[in-house]
Design goal:
Helix 1 runs antiparallel to helix 2 and helix 2 packs antiparallel against helix 3. Helices cover 30% and strands 22% of the residues. It has one domain: 2-Layer Sandwich (Heat Shock Protein 90). The chain has 153 residues and is α+β, with helices and mostly antiparallel strands. The chain has a five-stranded antiparallel sheet, covered by helices on one side. Bound molecules: adenosine-5'-triphosphate and magnesium ion. The site of adenosine-5'-triphosphate has 16 residues, from helix 2 and helix 3.
Length: 153
Amino acid sequence: MTESSVSPGPIVLWLSSRFENLELGQAVLEYVCRLRGIENDAEHWIGVALREALANAIKHGNHQDPARRVMLSLGGSADDLEIVVGDEGEGFETSAVADPLAPENQMKTSGRGIFYMKTFMDDVIFERGARGGTVLTMRKHLGGDRKKGVQTR
Ligand SMILES: Nc1ncnc2c1ncn2[C@@H]1O[C@H](COP(=O)(O)OP(=O)(O)OP(=O)(O)O)[C@@H](O)[C@H]1O
Ligand SMILES: [Mg+2]
């Protein structure tokens, strides 16, 4: 078995809704990337997507209530990395999210998180959780171009 095919299986964390926990999520991502042979450039962009997803779950989903939990799962198969972020919020309508590339939004300093996730990851799927809240699944296909870094499209 080569180093790059080592997949630790899903790692699941339940995080308190504090922004400090972004760093913990990032640290676990770095661990998984090292184990799976994902190169630094790709890890960097996946890390941006992960931090945006966790920040949204903490801020918009759980309203920074430390009693509410954010679920983070890092898994996937040999050829892809799957990140799932779940929160205990009210959920939201993705079709209502403003397009950050629209002229009237280009001067705004927020509203780019989901755009970044979609830019850096191959699949970005928002679903309503069984008990309410949002379940976000993001996948990065690693396949043959794992060593070439992330295409930023
Ligand atoms: N987990 C979530 N629960 C509820 N609403 C959400 C969630 N994630 C995103 N949203 C909604 O989608 C909008 C767009 O999210 P996005 O991350 O693109 O921008 P932002 O969080 O407003 O700003 P930025 O991420 O640039 O700081 C948010 O303003 C919020 O209304
Ligand atoms: Mg955001």
